[in-house]
């Protein structure tokens, strides 16, 4: 007696096709093309989650550097001074201060200058 796997296969195919719904042309209709699209898009999503963290860190550093230079201090000297003063703030918070609260960041620059 042989086992027919039609329902299981259909369920698996439908799951993939539903995941790529909205893709252009056959990528959203035919299983094989849908599966290729899904594999590729999943890999891009995985890779770009890491790339986004890298890009955001670069953006934060750029913002902090610009704000520090207005107060006459470079980014590297600023970070070094904060370390010496034992001020533990991450770059995300410092960049947010640079945009929203420049006065507080200017005070931090003075602390870093005194410590470094």
Model description:
This protein is an all-alpha fold and 116 residues long. It has one domain: Ribosomal protein L20, C-terminal domain (c-terminal domain of poly(a) binding protein). The chain is 76% helix and 0% strand. The protein is rod-shaped, with a radius of gyration of 26 Å. It starts with 5 loop residues before the first helix and ends with a helix.
List the helices and strands and how they pair.
Elements: H1 6-19, H2 31-70, H3 75-84, H4 91-100, H5 102-115
Helix pairs in contact: 1-2, 2-4, 3-5, 4-5
Largest sheet: none
> What sort of overall outline do the alpha carbons produce when their principal axes are compared?
rod-shaped
Q: Considering the protein shown, what is the CATH homologous superfamily? A: Ribosomal protein L20, C-terminal domain
Query: Could you say what the CATH architecture is?
Result: Orthogonal Bundle
Helix-strand makeup class: mainly alpha
Order of helices and strands: HHHHH
Q: Whole-number radius of gyration?
A: 26 Å
């Amino acid at each position: 007696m042989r086992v027919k796997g039609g329902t299981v296969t259909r369920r698996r195919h439908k799951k993939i096709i539903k995941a790529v719904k909205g893709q252009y042309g056959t990528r959203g209709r035919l299983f094989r093309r849908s599966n290729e699209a899904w594999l590729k898009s999943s890999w891009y999503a995985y890779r770009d989650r890491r790339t986004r963290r890298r890009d955001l860190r670069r953006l934060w550093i750029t913002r902090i550097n610009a704000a520090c230079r207005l107060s006459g201090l470079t980014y590297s000297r600023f970070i070094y001074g904060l370390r010496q003063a034992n001020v533990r703030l991450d770059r995300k918070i410092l960049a947010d201060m640079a945009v929203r609260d420049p006065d507080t960041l200017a005070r931090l620059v003075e602390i870093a200058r005194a410590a470094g």
